[in-house]
Amino acid sequence: MSLTLHFHPLSSFCWKALIALYENDIPFTPNSVNLGDPVERAALLKLWPVGKFPVLRDDARGETVPESSIIIEYLDRHYRGPTRFIPDDVHSAWQTRLRDRFYDLYVHLPMQKIMGDRLRPDGNKDPHGVAEARAQLRTSYAMIEHQMARGGWAMGGEFGLADCAALPPLFYGNMVEPFGAAHGRVSAYLERLKARPSVARVLKEAEPYFHMVPKER
Ligand SMILES: N[C@@H](CCC(=O)N[C@@H](CS)C(=O)NCC(=O)O)C(=O)O
């Protein structure tokens, strides 16, 4: 098997890449990385000195591919299946990439900020940064509520890159900053995503690790 995904089953950005792999039943070897283990961390750093996962290694093509969006674009090009993640049409393609950036930068990162703050020791927390992240999430939820006026997937018609990007931060986002009654379409979109077989599989595999999700103290 030429593809190896270096990942962790609880990691939100890894979910994004896993959804794409499962969507098209692409065979790969999963390598679960414990970043707390110095040997495993060093092996990941060797592949991608930034030290973040997911990282995809493709031995057949001699490529190491970091960054969830780039992994999905790589799979779409070199391991194509029935689900196309980025449309061929140039106009739809840039709109899809924009929505992917929206979910990563304005939903995923603020969600990570709030979750990450729970891990900080008392005295080193960042309440100002967390308040900013909450405000950003609420702005983003309102934007998604508007985008989802007609239901469906992130880009309207077909499931794609932006939906892979949307599930992880909406799943964890609803835990750290609940959608609330004003964002019924965001809730409904999250439920549609959770019912998608590729997503359901990712969530099922993550279940045994859910006790490790940092709690609010
Ligand atoms: N922009 C990256 C973000 C990856 C990322 O933040 N991964 C997190 C897990 S969800 C990570 O590796 N965290 C470990 C660390 O920062 O030490 C992507 O899209 O793949």
Give an overview in words.
The structure is a single chain. 56% of the residues lie in helices and 8% in strands. The protein has 217 residues and is an alpha+beta fold. Bound molecules: glutathione. Glutathione binds at residues 11-13, 35, 51-54, 67-69.
Taken in chain order, the helices and strands follow as EHEHEEHHHHHH
What would CATH call the architecture of the largest domain? Up-down Bundle
- Estimated radius of gyration: 17 Å
Number of helices: 8
Q: Compute the number of strand runs.
A: 4
Strand count, sense and closure of the main sheet? Answer: 4 strands, mixed
Bound molecules: glutathione
CATH topology group of the largest domain: Glutathione S-transferase Yfyf (Class Pi), Chain A, domain 2
- End-to-end separation: 43 Å
Name the overall outline. Answer: globular
Q: Which regions contain 5 or more consecutive residues with pLDDT less than 50?
A: none
Q: Which range does the strand content fall in? A: 5-15%
Please bin the fraction of helical residues. 55-70%
CATH classification class of the largest domain = Mainly Alpha
Content-based structural category: alpha+beta
Task: Provide the number of structural domains.
Answer: 2
Average the pLDDT over all residues and give the rounded result.
97
Strand arrangement in the largest pleated sheet:
2-1-3-4
